[in-house]
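Hey L., structure's done. Input below.
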Amino acid sequence: MSDSQPREVEHEITVSAPASEVYRLIADVENWPRIFPPTIYVDHVERSGDEELIRIWATANGEAKNWTSRRHLDPEAMRITFRQQVSTPPVATMGGTWIIEALSETESRVRLQHDYTAVDDDPAGLAWIEEAVDRNSRSELAALRTNVELATASEELTFSFEDTVEIAGAAKDVYDFINEAGLWSERLPHVATVRLSEESPGLQTLEMDTRAKDGSVHTTKSYRVCLEGERIAYKQTTLPALMNLHTGLWTFRETDAGTLATSQHTVVIRAENIGRILGPEADVAQAKEYVRSALSTNSRATLGHAKDYAEARR
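Output:
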């Protein structure tokens, strides 16, 4: 831990949306992977009134990192203060405040303040943090503006769905099958090649070449967060032309009969590519159905093989 004075920096942006809407979007961490490009997954560790402890997995300068952060929400003042509980080197301490100010009924200013110190006050560490904070703050604020302003427009383009399979086997075996994605090219017919790296326990980078029903091969890249046998969350960073966003969650629930395994997807359609991919007559509803069918086919195939794997081990 550093005893030096923290460095302080502030970034701001003007958003064409009511301040209350902007505040709500930032306050609700479940939406962060959809709003902020660096964020992979966020979950609550504890909650009490206006205080909460959250776990965040995000990329910084191209590396996947995770940390816990304590937040205090003040809806009246439209301020959210945050302080990392356990930081990842080179960060020794990190905290800050979101401040949302109404400029008019339809416009607001968002200020994002940070203060930080580096492990052992290392100059190289400070430079790394400064670059990461600057890049992530700019990208977060730009994405926040885009997503708040498009909230109404993208409502029609955003959808979620899930597939669930009953498995007469142990949840741990099903989890292991999904977790061990490095073996998928041997275990799943629709996966041609796979490259899996695990930078730290439970934090994976997964690159795959998958075969579609028409025989074409698509390369995808995802960051995955694997949580103690109960769920695996991911965010796809290399996206097919029809998607602006794709996040997913695998969950495994013990039942009297075995396990309920669910694959959940959240997608935002890239409207400008619908005509090019599906033809000039195609609309948003057809694009959703096309994407849903493609994702569901792969999810169900993966769950089917996970079922065979787990039931064979019972």
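DSSP finds eight helices and 14 strands in the chain. The first helix runs from residue 19 to 27.

-- N.
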